[in-house]
Amino acid sequence: MSKNCFPVASLLLAVGLAGCARETETPAATAPSVQVPLPSGARTVPPGSEASSAALAAYELYWQISEQAGRAPREKDWRPELGKAMADPALTDYVNEVANLASVPAHTVGRYGRTPKVTSVSLGEPPRVVITDCLDATDEHLVSDKAGELGRNLDHPDQPRRYEFEAQVVRYPEPDRWLVQQVQPRLEKPC
Q1: Domain count within the chain
Q2: Fewest beta carbons within 10 Å, which of 58, 88, 153, 165?
Q3: This prediction's pTM
Q4: 22-39, pLDDT tens digit by residue?
Q5: Distances in whole angstroms, Cα of residue 116 to Cα of each of 17, 56, 120, 121
């Protein structure tokens, strides 16, 4: 299973669940993410622009909702809620991870430390903002909800605790909103 296939909010879950999925015979989601290139000939603007601010707000909403889903994966169908902050392929990848988490069963506790910054803004069609973040998973943990293992830490011992993460946030015209479309954890890049 490629560690780069998973959305960031569930990366810790995915690596930890890889072992759990084999134990419970629940296959981990492995739908590959497709890297979406920036439009050619797109005009770029400084990171402090209105587009940057809107994309950062969408990125924050992405984190709020994805962390809620990770903490309570069996609570409800998370797709509609996650759709407020994500578009495909990130949306489907994360919905699959929440379903995998619910099937183990397990949930997350704690939060990622984050330091997002806008690294690229393209006003081509569609407008796209690239955000680079440094994730610190020191306080984020995966715990079991399985009978007899309730609360057991399922963190994968080889999971990096700090790594770079990139998100592409795209402006969609109808309704006019910014959504996280692509995420790329870079486990090999500590930060």
Answers
A1: 1
A2: 153
A3: 0.78
A4: 333 333 333 333 444 444
A5: 26, 8, 12, 14
